[in-house]
Structures are given as structure tokens and as C-alpha cells.
Protein 1
Amino acid sequence: MPIVVVPYPSAPPNVLGPGLSARFTSDFTGPLPSDANFLVNLDATEDPATLFATITVPTPEPFTDLPLLLPNSGWEQFVNFWPVDGQQTFVRSFLREGATVIDSGTASFQWDATSGLSKMLLNPTTSGGGGGLTPAQDQALQEIHQGTALDQLLDALTLELISPAGGGPGPFNRTLLTPTAGVLVRMTAIAAGLVPDTPDGDYWLPSLAVIRLFRGADLWHRVPVHTSSKLYYWLDENVTAFATNLLVSQWLLNMSVQVTIREGCQAEVFLLHYP
């Protein structure tokens, strides 16, 4: 029988994430040698090449209770494949004699980046009993909050002008080599004959501009601009997956954006950058 992984009853059902715990149980009858250990790998997908965290824990018994990714708990973390919230992730566990595997198992769980934060607050210090956080844990918790709180991410965005100051006729193109949050289009001139026709006086037909997001040569998403300014965040387009400053912001390759302006109109165009 393979190793069974069961999240603690206090955790949300079938969910794992930073600060949450699980019990790893093997039916190996033993006795276990003195160099027995559990090796636990966390993979972002079914492919073991998407490993994003690993730990080796000595064990005298064919079971162990393991909190995930607490600061100073021995986890080694990798930045390339960190899962997004709600993603199905995979736990591969191995009971070993030294480096020789004597039992193993694979289980999948939904990734939850925030439910375990309260348990991190209650986690004892690693230097000797009592509640509260060590300085390292406190810093880690702050970084997790800063990296997962959408309001803080958006409040900290910076603007990069990719059009002429004061606006231009476009089109304006940019290859997105690093993580960006979206694009801002501000109309600076409206073609003669185009008149807004809504009570707020700020909606035009036809479109004043079009924002297009590409993956390679393929169109991913198209957003028309009908108003004097338009903020388009692509956080919901599965382009970016942010976790924390401790971990990584993942970014797809071969992304680009193009803003095309209607003839007779002009606009300033800004990229929205993470701090």
C-alpha cells in the first residue's frame, strides 16, 4: 500500500498550503533503521520536473506529521513552478533507509496560499517554546501578506509610458519580458465627429482604441476602449500567478501587448509594473 497523505482535520478539506499540515503514513512494518527518513516533494503539476519545494525529515516511525513551508522548518523552495491559488498540486512522498526508497506514494490537493497564515502566527519559535513569531517568521508572514493581498499589489504598481508624452496616434507595442500587471490607456484627443452619448458624457461608439494581448503570434485577449481612460489588468487572464516575495511571480513567455488607436484619435499608453 502506498504512503497515505491526510491533511490535518483543522485544515480545509483536501487542501494544502503554507502553514497547513498533513500526516504521512506508510504501512511498512519495520523495524525502521536509524537512518530512516521521509522525503517529501511538492510538485506544481503531475510532472515531477515542476518541483517547487522539498524536505527530508528523519523519522523513527513509519509516519510523520509535517507542517508545510513554515520559516526555518527545513523546506528547500524553488521559484520556477510555484502554484497559483486553487491549482491542483501533487505531493510525492518517500520513506527511505538512507537514500534507498522502501515505500512511496503520490497524492494531489488543491493549493491554498492563505488559509494557513493564522497557523503560522500560532507556530512556536524554533529556538525554544512559547507562542509568537521569530523575527524571521514575522518577516516571512509580512512578505506573504504583501505578496498575496491584491489591494497592496495594485497600490504599489508603477507606470511606464510607452507612448509619446501627451499622446500619439499609435500603434504602441511592447514585448512583455518581465511580469507586468496590465496596461492603462488615456485618450488625449478624440476624432472630430465622435460624440459621447451617455449620461456621464464618457462613452463613445465606435471604439476609440483596442488593447490586444498576444502569446507569440496568437491573440489571447482583445479589449475595446470606449471611454476617456481604460485600465486593463490581466491578472484574471492566467498570464501571471503571484504568491509572495518569498516565492516568485510566475510569468509566461512570448507575451506582448499592442494598443491600436482609431484614426484621428491620440492616447497616452502606460504599462503597469509590479514594485
Protein 2
Amino acid sequence: MGSVLDYIDCPNCGHEAYDDFYYKTGEEYINCNNCGYHKRTTIINREKSLAELTEEDWEVVELKNPYGAYRFKVTGDIGSACGSVESEEAFEAVKKAVAEMEDVEYFSISRLIGDEIILEVIYENKQDGESNTRI
């Protein structure tokens, strides 16, 4: 399966979002790590050929007004885990799950408030040996 990764202006906040388009299937994933906007266009019925697909064979899920985008990194991992949250309640559930993890190096939420992206660092294990209060 081949894909093209592009960077676009987020339809929600206007900041940079990434667009992962699978050119062999027409499926697409758009994510904004600034505000949490997410849109996913996927094939539901994979038993049909691409030429046989109708509108009913596609699923489009769009999170137009997200609560925010979270990011956390586990010590020793190369990358971070990122995701969108739909509501404050959903973020509290993510926050609780991350608090139960061991070796969390970094945890934050980024939100669109008014016309501005606000980044709140929830937890950061500093390199100098000091660390913030646990989540």
C-alpha cells in the first residue's frame, strides 16, 4: 500500500496538520497535533474492488470541534504518542491512563482557545534530575 504524506492548513485552527493519503485505495487521514482536529475516510467493505465501491462503502469520521490534542512520551522511546480528544471528560480519561503508566517522560495537551493554540505541559521529567509533580 502506498501513501503520500503532505502538510496542509488545518481546517479547524489554520495551523499545520498532516494529511496521509493512500493513493491505491483513496483512503485519507488528516490530523492536527495543534488543536486535535481529525478526519478519517476509510473503506468499510473491502470485499469489493475499488471500481465497485459506492458511497455506502465508505466511512467518513470527522472531529470538527475537538477539546484538544495530547502528546506523551515514555522514557527511552524514540517517538511520542499523539491523539485527539473530543471532550474534557475524554481528556481526563487519557490523563488518568497516562498517570498509571511508568516512566512517562513528557505529557501535554494543546488546545485551540479563541484564535490561539495554548500548550499545557502536564508532566515533564527534566534531564537535570528534577521532575515536576506527578500527574
Protein 3
Amino acid sequence: MLSKFDWLRRCRDGSEFLATLHFFSEHPKIDLSTLEIGGPLSAIGPLCRRCKVYAPIQQPYHRYCKLCEHILKRRIKVMRRAQSAIIIWGYVNQISKRLRESKPTKLIYGTYIHDDQHFLVMMHRQYLKEWLQELVIYSGLELKGLLQILPSLSEFRTMNIGDFLCWAIHHEAALPMDQLRVRFFTHPIQLINPKKREKEGLLTFHVSDFINMLEMVEVFRVYLPPQQQQDLLALLNLDDPKEEQFYWGRFLGQISQAAKDMLDAWQVRQWTKAQTRFFYHLINYVYFPRSN
């Protein structure tokens, strides 16, 4: 019999993952043992085409079991929401009562408590800073462990989002549980081989440092409009120092004094290209109100 966690690990993409979380949130006391186990796999055997464990619904032309059919129907409705979602896998010394009692909202799509030290949250990516701040404020210095943040979409035909979740579990005990750390993956494939990102210093952060970076991105979006953000990105990616020096002077003449002071204080010209890409990737993870 498959457990709730087994069902999550069988999801292929973020929409299936979210649909599964919704199902278990709506049916917290469901008895999975009532599902009928299917027969041996064969060309005409009654076996669910998705989970390949349970028997399909006993109706003509049904290929899926009751739970798989619900997930596949629900995934269509939540597909757009899943595109802007992130998954957080937490391995901590204790799970707060507030986290255990959290319910799905417009921004927090679902929560799963695996045991006394492991939990999973799926949320809108632009709510990440606020969620981390609430977690730190509510738990204080008592909370220690590792929060692994990964995008909910998988673009690989040979691996699904459940596989990437298993890789996150594989890496969770690599660091001591002496403080609360964040591991931020910009792409699921980085879970398989995180050494390069670790060497660049762009993978593991203390939770307060990571929150500070998200706040920097918010300030960045306030002082630089989208077009100037892209102009700066193109400028920082130039390989010729003389060409960069020429265009840098022209760029400074186009931005406000506050923006100049910000870029000077951050010493953005000293950033590596990897740091620049990472910082610009974080832009998608902060909320910025649109003007009417």
C-alpha cells in the first residue's frame, strides 16, 4: 500500500504535486488501505496506468484508479498556479505547532508533515521572504536545520519532481544541525550535482543572509525599472573591460542618484557572472506591486 509520501514522490510535475497536496488537505483522514490493489501487469490486466499499483475504477474504458483519476483531473485546474510555485523540503530539529496547523491559502498552496523532523510546503514563490520571516520570528533561535527550496516544474522526460525530492532528502544530512540554513536551487538538476554551486558560494546560506538577499532584490526593483535592469545585466555580462567602462559611464547617466548609490554600495561591478545570474534569478521570488 502506498503512503501519502509515496503518492507525492510519484508525481511527475508541479501540477500533479499540487493536486496531490490538495487532495490530502481536503481528505486528511483518508484511509488509503481501502484502495483495491490491482492485478499483475499485462496487456489486458486491470491495473492503473499511472501508479501501476491499484486497480482502475470498475467502469468501461477507465484506465486509472480513483486517486490517480482525481489527481489528473485536478492538475488541469491548478496548472497555472503550479507554474509560479516552489517546494520547500525542511529537515529541522522541531516542527512548530503553527506549521502543523497551517492550512492552504491563496499563497500557501499546501503543507505536508512527514514526521517530527521533516515537513514540506508548497507556496507561491513571491511569498518566500514573508514565509521565512514569519518562520524565524515565530520559532526564534530554537529552530535549526536545513530548508531546501526548489522549483516545482520538471522539464526532464527521464526524471520527475518526485525524483528531485528524493535527491533533496539524500542531501539533507550533509550539514550539521547547529543553525537554520537555506539551500536555494535555481534549477532541479542542481540537486543531482550541487558541488559547482557550492564552490561558487551560491547554494547554502544562513537564513538571515538569504532573507537579506531577497530584501536587496526588492530594493533593486524599486530603484531600477525593468528596462534599466536589463541594460545593467547586459553591461555586467560584457567581456571587454574597455567596452564595459565606456557603456558604464553612459548607463550611470541614465539612472537616478539613489540607484547610483545603491550599485556603488553593493559593488556590482565586482560581481562574478555567476553572482549576477543568481541575483537576477531572485527577482522572480520577490513581490513587486504593479502600478495602475
